[in-house]
Amino acid sequence: MNPLTQLIHHAYQPPDGFEAPQPGVFKASTVFFPNVAAMRSREWKNKTGYTYGLHGTPTTYMLEERLCTLEGGAHCVLVPSGLCAIALVALALLKSGDEVLIPDNAYGPSKSLVEAELLGWGITHQYYDPMDPQDLEAQISSRTRLVWLEAAGSVTLEFPDLVRQLQICRQRKVLTALDNTWGAGLAFKPFDLQPGVEPALGVDVSIHALTKYPSGGGDVLMGSVMTRDPALHHRILLTHMRLGLGVGMNDVEAVLRSLPSVALRYRAHDVATRHLVHWACQQSEFVQVLHPALEESPGHYQWKALCGIEPGNAAGLFSVILDPRFNRDQTDAFCDALRLFRLGYSWGGPISLVVPYALESMRMGWPPHLLRGTLVRFSVGLEAVEDLQADLQQALTQLK
Ligand SMILES: Cc1ncc(COP(=O)(O)O)c(C=O)c1O
Q: Rounded to the nearest whole angstrom, what is the distance from the C-alpha of residue 358 to the centroid of ligand 1?
């Protein structure tokens, strides 16, 4: 054979038995079959084989299984972003004429999805008050097929009564999907909120923006959709296949590499955040500090009951509401003056981030549990906490 052909159809096979800390990375669109019979019969839906790169490789299966271990799920699919995970759940579980309920503090683009896309396909939505289970109950109608949950809200950090919310949805036989990016599978176990209680009280679907804590580097976009119920997983998997959703193996590798340290990093973010939160509470420029471990923060008692108070259960986000005497320009100057906290979206990476939010344009009305003023959200990275505090302190002088 011509060496060019030999190079492509090379006979060498490395010996079996290679083992190393990190799993190998398998990249493929095409997957080979030994014969036509295998091509016709091979099954990928239950992870017993490989048919095409989009339907799974050893690398994607590996990450999916490890994520299930972390969160207590049974089945998982990977998608290109956290937002795509939210969209996949909608496309798999909703059809024209159905209604979906969303907490009013939900991740903003989830609201855009229902308002700008789902509505056009005849799927309606209602927003409910995340802090009022009765409101959730009142909004469930005969058309409600899915209720989204989020704990805590990623901007305003209210922690809902998840247990009560799930009990209501279960009584009303409505599916639940949790955006569990904040909890990361570490703060609480979404498929089993009350360990030891049978039958288990848990969500039907849990999605993650793996972009945040599981990736941990601020350099990967990925999402996951997890379930315990095989029938539900099957529906999601088929929609996933029909939409052609795939992820890059280098990105999967990056998450696999970061995953063993996720609990340590999450704890470090949490410890530093609590330190800064206590400092922020003493600053007169802030009229309210939002973080679930603060007794006066909305939903603190629900958080404490579900997650416990130990560090390692409260992620790395906190928000402050600035005294309304500061105008928008002053608030912007405060954010601009920060040197270690960089202006940028997302969270869960090594670098601290800050974003000012116009809450009035994000919510149905000003939430009664929040004081008036501009809200600024901080994502606390892995820098030394005393440097972060000094950074906040020096930026505060811009507000004087
Ligand atoms: C709570 C929450 N869910 C989902 C997402 C979406 O993740 P991604 O950026 O990977 O689309 C984000 C992103 O900021 C988020 O904050």
A: 18
How many CB atoms lie under 10 A from the CB of residue 139?
A: 17
Q: Does the predicted model carry a pTM greater than 0.85? A: yes
Measure 284 CA to ligand 1 centroid, in angstroms: 31
Ligand 1 contact via 180 beta carbon (within 6 Å):
no
Helices then strands (H, E): number in the chain?
A: 13, 12
| Token digits of residue 360 | 């009035």
Tens-digit pLDDT profile for residues 122-181? 999 999 999 999 999 999 999 999 999 999 999 999 999 999 999 999 999 999 999 999
Token readout for 342 is: 């960089």
Residue 400 has pLDDT above 80, yes or no: no
Contact 111 CB / ligand 1 (< 6 Å): no
Alpha-carbon distance of 223 to 110, in angstroms, equals 14
CB 298 within 8 A of CB 340: no
Verify whether ligand 1 is closer than 6 Å to residue 157 (CB atom): no
Contact 215, 254 (CB under 8 A): yes
User: Among 68-72, 195-199, 271-275, which stretch is predicted with the lowest mean pLDDT?
Assistant: 195-199
- Residue 13 C-alpha to ligand 1 middle, in angstroms? 42
Distance 242 CA to ligand 1 centre (A): 23
As a whole-number percent, the residues of the chain with pLDDT over 90 amount to 97
Nearest alpha-carbon partner for 174 in 218, 129, 126? 126
Q: Are 150 and 101 in contact (CB under 8 A)?
A: no
What is the pLDDT confidence band of residue 197, given thresholds at 50, 70 and 90? confident
pLDDT in tens, 67-80: 999 999 999 999 99
Q: What is the DSSP letter of 157?
A: -
Residue nearest to atom 5 of ligand 1 (CA): 82
Kindly state if the Cβ of 110 falls inside 6 Å of ligand 1. Answer: no
Structure tokens at 36: 């036509």
DSSP-H helix ranges across the chain = 3-8, 36-41, 58-71, 82-93, 108-112, 133-139, 162-171, 230-243, 249-258, 262-281, 300-307, 328-337, 385-396
Could you tell which of 113, 148, 154 is best to mutate to test the pocket of ligand 1, judged by most ligand atoms within 8 Å of the CB? 154
* Cα distance between residue 169 and residue 259, in whole Å: 32
